[in-house]
Amino acid sequence: MLSGKGFTQVFNMSGGIKAWQGNKAVGAQDLGMDLFTGQEEPRDILKTAYSLEQGLRDFYLEMEKQTSNDEVKSLFSKLAEIEIKHQEEILAAYNQFSPEPADRAGFEKIVETRAMEGGLTTQEYMDLFHPDLNSPKDVISLAMSIEAQALDLYQRVGSRLEGREARGTINKIANDEKSHLASLGKLMDTL
After folding, report:
1. Range of the structural domain that residue 178 is part of
2. Region 164-191 average pLDDT
3. How many domains, the chain?
4. In a domain, 89, yes or no
């Protein structure tokens, strides 16, 4: 995978993935791939990415209702607001490719919400990670896992896309997911 991304020297770590102690993407190799055909144009990719961000925002807002801890409520609210910023970035990118720029309301009319980032449903994430919704660390860990799933999905889709512009678009979104993960890591460090 790394050599396919242009890395000229790739080394295996001792013990391979079994020795890795950090977070890993979960699920089947084709998880979330049904959201993409491989024939998408950049605007199609951006519409799907926007809907995935909306799904994650809705998830955070729903989780905010389910917790009784005020600190965690505030955290879920902050995470939901961050997703709005991600959506704004995606809309700006969409408008670079569109002959007629769209505002947020107009764009949302052409976007279908089909899933949440990473390709799992809300219940699947809850069943998989069993977060304590009253623990800020559990909430941030859950958010990091979801962002890691999204990064994995976008990288897998990028390797399947045919058009150069489309691959560039999805790779940009994947890189954005890396920075989202870094931001969540900094937030975790403040706890």
Report:
1. 39-189
2. 88
3. 1
4. yes
* pTM over 0.90, yes/no: no
Residue 21 lies in a domain: no
**CATH number of the domain enclosing 109:** 1.20.1260.10
Average pLDDT over residues 43-67: 89
Residues in Cβ contact with 135 at an 8 Å cutoff, skipping those fewer than 6 apart = 69, 72
Say if 172 falls within a structural domain: yes
Q: Could you report the per-residue pLDDT of 9-33, keeping only the tens digit for each? A: 776 667 766 666 665 556 667 777 7
